[in-house]
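User: I'm putting together notes for a lab meeting next week and I want to include a structural view of one of the chains we've been expressing. I don't have a solved structure, so I'd like a prediction I can at least talk through. The sequence is below, exactly as it appears in our construct file.
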Amino acid sequence: MSAERFTIDTNILVYSVDLAAGEKHEIAMDIIRRARYAPCWLTLQSISEFYTVVTRKRMVPRPEARRLSSLLLDLFPAVVASVAAVRSAMADSVSGRSSYWDALLIATAAEAGCTAILTEDLADGHAMHGVRVLNPFGDAALTPAAEALLTVH
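Assistant: Thanks for the context. Below is the predicted structure for the 153-residue chain, given as structure tokens.
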């Protein structure tokens, strides 16, 4: 199994239920399936944002969104933002390094020992607090870096 602990951002979770997302839907589903067997931790922030987005955009009814969010909580270890992560996110936001919510996600993931995040919302290859950003979407397939992260040995 890959020794690198990672997390998955909200956009990947949303694509996993967004049938209109085409190839991104298929790739996101593959990520979720494979991440179950890898050292993947989710933040409660991402799960909460997932529920909010899929219900607000009416991708799934609220009871289904609740079921899916609960399933994510069952499948993956989850980590909550600490006071230190909130302070770090505010500092990163004030300095212009990142938006508050992105900084909070990364600071929380870093505290959980994650060294990577799968997302398309941040600059691929960028690192913050020891967490490197990997955009998993390549030309109709996972990028090599995301593939390596998800490969179980």
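A couple of points you could mention at the meeting. The longest strand covers residues 131-134. Residues 6-150 form a domain with the Rossmann fold fold (CATH 3.40.50.1010).

User: Perfect, that's what I needed.
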